[in-house]
Amino acid sequence: MEYKISNRLRTGAIILMVLGVLGVGYGFMDAYSVNEDNITEYLAKEDHHGDEHATESHGEEHNVSAAHSEEGHADEAHGAEAEAEGHKMTHEEHVLHQLHNRPYAALYVAAFFFFMISLGVLAFYAIQYAAQAGWSPVLFRVMEGITSYVLPGGALVLLIAFFADSHIFIWMDENVVAHDAIIQNKSGWLDKTWFMIRGLIFLGGWSAYRHFSRKFSVAQDLADVNDNSNFKKNFRISAAFLVFYIYTESIMSWDWIMSVDPHWFSTLFGWYVFASMFVSGITVIALITIFLKSKGLLPFVNDSHIHDLAKFMFGISIFWTYLWFSQFMLIWYANIPEEVTYFVTRIEGYNLPFFGMVALNFLFPLLLLMNSDYKRIPWFVVMTGVVILFGHYLDIFNMIMPATVGDRWFIGIPEIGSILFFGGLFMLIVFTSLGKYPLLAKGNPFMKESEHFHY
Amino acid sequence: MEASKVIHAIYTDDDVLMSAVKTVKAEKYHIEDVFTPFPVHGLDKAMGLAPTRLAITAFLYGAVGLAVATVMMNYIMIQDWPQDIGGKPSFSFLENMPAFVPIMFELTVFFSAHLMVITFYMRSKIWPFKKAENPDPRTTDDHFLMEIAVHNNEESLTNLLKDTGAVEINIVNKDEDAH
């Protein structure tokens, strides 16, 4: 079955991107309309509105700093910043930094979210090949379409990281590092040049796998019936890629996410981010498959395939919760100051998104997809999928925002604009790529088994 | 007790058995039971058996386990004998809840799994040391057996079963209280 991106879809995606650019632009203008000259007025106006948030947060900040004064540092990135300037940084400067960081962070969260969807799908795809799965080959072209976003998406994340600099990664600010013994000890790793080189190596490896696996997959379609050499090549590179992936994904999660809180660390963070990207990726496979099937383009996909995808959505959601809780409980129980600040800031400043995300990512999939029959009802899977995707956007939001904007967070125009922009770009690239080759990878030796798959 | 006649058709391949079941069902005969050495995928649907309700009981048992764990931990650690563990003696269930989550999870699984197995035993009327109701011991090795009740239609049924690829067809008097 051939598919060509429809004009309506392309126009829709471009409109989303344009709206997104406007939103992001507004976000930057709005943030930079407050500067050193009028920050005092800005804060005074805020107080007039009866919003005592700012003063409250300031008090908290001092408590946190006081708690750690023995070690001479505060753990929250901006606590570190305040400390670094020898407590010379005023409240005004601090708020100003948070305001200016917000559009960068909003852009980064959305960029990473859409990128991780395609990277999660790439890992899922490689697992199907390495395991020689018989059920999934009818979905391979959908997966290949989604993974076409790995290279552009990853490049954009790196670009934003490069230009946002210390607006997102506090350790890229030399002044901060100069006064911070802990970051100094990590400076061998947390170095901007080395960070970018690592990023390029990861992205290079992932895109190389994506390039060759797509090439062999297409070549297998055109090959003779008895010639499985392309399939075998794909099997081999998939196994090698999975080894490369699990190391690089883990390191990427320290670099691109965990380092925004440079004092804090968690040893299962790589797994945790992996669970997030895996479940988001599988959800998007299910959503796009249901969309194409509703257009009559995937007649070979039956409801058992949807059922299996929904089982994965259900299972990996629970896996995510398991990791979320494992990370939380150990830190909560041990209550070691430099670790626990991570959750203290989130529970105090981000109560709704932090616990709301657990409800969205755990309770909804658990209850909606528990029943076997519901996993075969497309609108049920779509509904749960939308909830899961929103929940995992919030997950990334909770990872990045507390370290960059403190408690001055809101899902407003900069955030929604960024989602629209990257969502539009994602749709444009993925659906264009879907239209390049037939939607059935007919040369795959497991295709017959996959077409007859039933549960 | 009145003895009822049944026909035992024996097959040696699960694919042949599956198509035989479909043929027999299409001819509107009532299949009493099928004995197989291993689970045959899709056989229940082909035989037209009602879907299992075991999953619903599993959910309910899990909910009971969760409730038991919650009440138990509240009684042990909050009401009866609060202990200071890791500086968390807060006398509040909600504040100490994260520490109880592993127990709540485990008891949910424990109740669900064990009670589900017991339910399955009771529903299938099997228990330890019970004598097997298996009509032919070869069905525990490499043969498949389809049992169909006979109501004065031995001949047509035998012919039909022969056509479906049965390797052996026996007509037996099934004594209801033999076991």
TrEMBL record, chain B:
Protein name: Quinol:cytochrome c oxidoreductase membrane protein
Source superkingdom: Bacteria
Spans traversing the lipid bilayer: 54-77, 97-121
UniProt KW Membrane keyword: yes
Naturally occurring in which organism (per UniProt): Winogradskyella pacifica
Keywords: Membrane, Transmembrane, Transmembrane helix
Pfam families named in the record: ActD (PF11821)
Keyword Transmembrane: yes
